[in-house]
Amino acid sequence: MLSGASTAVETQQSTLSRYLDGEFWQFKDDIREDIRRCELFHQTSFDLTLDQTRDLTMERVYYVMQTPLMRQHFRDQVTEKQRGFIAKSLGLTEVICSADMTTGVKLGVICGLYGGAVINLGNPEQKDKWYLPVSDLEFTGMFAMTERGHGSNVRGILTEAQYDPSTEEFIINTPCVDAQKMYIGNCMKGNHASVFAQLTVNGETQGPHCFIVPIRDRHGVMHPGVTAIDMRHKEGLHGVDNGILIFDNVRIPRENLLSRFGSVSADGVYSSPIQNKSHRFNAMLAALTPTRLALTVQAMAGMKLGLIIAVRYSHSRRQFGPKDKDEVKIIEHQTQYLRLMPHLAAALALTFTTRFAAAMMDDVLCGGESLDNNRSLQALMAGLKAYSTWQNIHCLQECRECTGGMGFMMENRIPGLKCDSDVFVTFEGDNMVMLQVKKNNCLFFDAWNSCLHHITSLALAHIHRVTLEQFALAVEQCPVEEDRTLLTKFCLLHGTNLVYQERGWYLEHHYLTPRTSRLIRNQLLELCRLVKDEALKVVSDFKVPPFCIKAPIAGVANPRAQWAFYSTPDPAPSASSLPQHHGRTSKL
Amino acid sequence: MLSGASTAVETQQSTLSRYLDGEFWQFKDDIREDIRRCELFHQTSFDLTLDQTRDLTMERVYYVMQTPLMRQHFRDQVTEKQRGFIAKSLGLTEVICSADMTTGVKLGVICGLYGGAVINLGNPEQKDKWYLPVSDLEFTGMFAMTERGHGSNVRGILTEAQYDPSTEEFIINTPCVDAQKMYIGNCMKGNHASVFAQLTVNGETQGPHCFIVPIRDRHGVMHPGVTAIDMRHKEGLHGVDNGILIFDNVRIPRENLLSRFGSVSADGVYSSPIQNKSHRFNAMLAALTPTRLALTVQAMAGMKLGLIIAVRYSHSRRQFGPKDKDEVKIIEHQTQYLRLMPHLAAALALTFTTRFAAAMMDDVLCGGESLDNNRSLQALMAGLKAYSTWQNIHCLQECRECTGGMGFMMENRIPGLKCDSDVFVTFEGDNMVMLQVKKNNCLFFDAWNSCLHHITSLALAHIHRVTLEQFALAVEQCPVEEDRTLLTKFCLLHGTNLVYQERGWYLEHHYLTPRTSRLIRNQLLELCRLVKDEALKVVSDFKVPPFCIKAPIAGVANPRAQWAFYSTPDPAPSASSLPQHHGRTSKL
Q: Cα–Cα distances in Å, from A324 out to B43, B283, B441, B451?
């Protein structure tokens, strides 16, 4: 553990940083401090072997799980839902992912996915038996839904669960290659899996259900009939051990069926609170929705880190300029601020939109409402997941290009962030599939397929609107005038950019005239120019501690790569951001 | 070396593949066969350590350099330019990069950059002394232009070269941190560097010139005064050892100044065929332009590989479909073919456009014309570099997303291709800077800066037009009717997509009506649907041998990752590509 002179997280306590952190800012600060005190998070891992990276990640996960804050959070998860639980979970996710994306994802697998399955699909005894011990590090779990043959189309999974009344056991089986459970995180280290399989009782199929299947004991000895294949090297998230699970008639006790949506009596009678199989499966999937919001926060954490690094470097690095004068900071180049500022505005919009979605989710869960009846919330989660993860990809790519060769070096973090978060756009629901929530895509396949491009465009347009609405609302509610003024500019920029990006469609449908459209381009350029210096304050108020940023080009010294160091730029606004320019922003 | 039953490259000898390979198809086939016979190219390298990867890359480079074809090519490079030399160099680049991007880039550093500097800036004796021995593996070289302080703005480099008449030597010096030579490829293994430095003779500065500076001898012993710092881990191109060079008053003989554009007599008199310093430097830079075209080909090689993998997998993998029927191939999903087909069309367009640019370059060089007087050719090279490298990034990202979790696995190649080629957009001239060739950006910085977005958009629009023109011309000249028919569809698709992408601008400037713009969207969808099955033939006719493709999801078995294997799809057209659909394409 670290100690000594620097005993507190070096965080800024500005009013804006507190507003951006939201209601649970103290909770987030406490996690930041917990992580800072752990040496494991001060290391980089890009030069370790695959096995070393996996071990380091697991150590980090264990450290986080043992902090008092996290242990309390475990207990809150198992007991009745309290208002703020989702928001706090997301705060935790954001801070951990800022420190290390892989640790955040692995923790998400154990607590969000495996834990989420037990919590949301199990009865109270099952929660105590299969999840509480995780908080004591007695065992960890994995989430086995995806199959080789069915990634996006989970309704069609092929793994079988046959009830044997003679022994009161389920027989879990992988009948064919397409039924192999694939991409399973924590597959090479975890002990139990929440496995989705088609339940058959007395020869009658009851659709997919979730079972707890032992994979290996604490000493790593495999459970009879279970095979785990290591998938090894991926583009990123190297610390997450993804693998394939194959079940050869694995026998598990009757009590291992998570029974909230269906259970089997000792003598083999199936019962469920939902009679219709399709509705039942929808309800099960809906119960797992909250974890989807975590992905949005993970993507947002990646964006914020990338922007901190790119904005700071752009304010330090100089290149080109007027003849016979000093070269100018690269942030002064029109193409540079035009590339970075809209992403910064989007990161702010996402901050407020995820907070809104979390509050909505908290309300629904505390009200005991069923998530599958709330289609608009489900569509919001899915749309937000697609928008934020794509936004993250585009943002980090711009950050990489805007930091040039320095941004290509692993020491400067951006490549690792890109590789780690690239998979977000296709896992836990492919983005293209996410954009089709609101839709029954099986009955009229051809008709549905022929308007797929329309559907996905519309879904994105909807989520764009939500982000702008929530941003505007957050500006309105911001208590400090100075912060409100700053956020207003970024909000206007976000809205202008959304219209600019989609101006083709608006023009096609006569919502914009050609002249107005050209003015929007000018307004976008002017707004980007206007906020480029204030961007330094905003990225500082993201409150990511230096030991999480790590990048030397963002002003965090690293003895291993002294050549990459650029000192942190002075956040005082330069002449070009003085008020006299404000009046030049054209209003629509 | 491999031998036995499979003694020939498994290439398709269709008329289209020959047309795509162009005039030097036999030359390219011979290189394919040379590489196939070398075991080194059959290995993957993503699980090696950094040092192992670098060693493997160097061994591959040495293997290629020792092939009779390459040795002949060396001799052609040193002697008077022959028509076809550029085209053959690019064919070689494409084939090597298809086998391993890192090897292609490292070979490019040694032959294209270091060799290019000696060949284009040196006199005949200097070529014999400093470059010919490279073909005998006596030593290798590096290219040291970029400095910490001046990446894009090379005119401002700070490294000094002072002439000392008393010893008839130049003193090469790094006066400050910003003058360090940075990102230098082959820095940790190469023996000589072509170093750009500001020449001072008798107290008078003569602007940047290029010098051959010894770095280390064959035993790795550093030359006195030279320091090389290893930059180690990057996002990709792990086999290329990039580093930093620092010179502490390093003394080199007078003859080490490459003298085509300037030389110094023993007693210290400077002379040059070009009096104006700025013109002189432009001429030097222009002489190095041919290597820029190699980057376009490298990017194109990445795109083709990604498309081969994504298109084949999309024709094998099934997901969703009409109720109670088999699931459909994912290529049938509208969003899937809409994402992939425009990139395939762009890859074809780039094939023909680079061929055109190479022929133009060949003509100019054979005619003894100076490249710096040919601004349109320089603009074409720069624009093509920017367009193709961005296109490559977008294409590979779509390929990754369209192959889902499988595309995230290193075994399936796409992640490695993405990481390796990501740096292309910012190295050897940042793309944003590339798009400003035609322009003097120093005299009126503010005016220039305020229209930077316009300039870059216009430059891209120009290069878009050139790619479409060259594609159309290639269709016209295609000798086989069946191939012409197929290419016509892709050409129409390429043009439609270019207009669709930029429809906002066309609408703003009244070149399109809203109604026409909507029709273009329909035409784009219909063209993509129309070619989706023929895409299998096209990617097959890219003629990339299976040992280069490597990806199991593209039908190349790999005992290490049996779980990733999908058999190669049947290239026979399915019902949905039969002629009855052709008439449904709306024409503008």
A: 53, 22, 13, 21
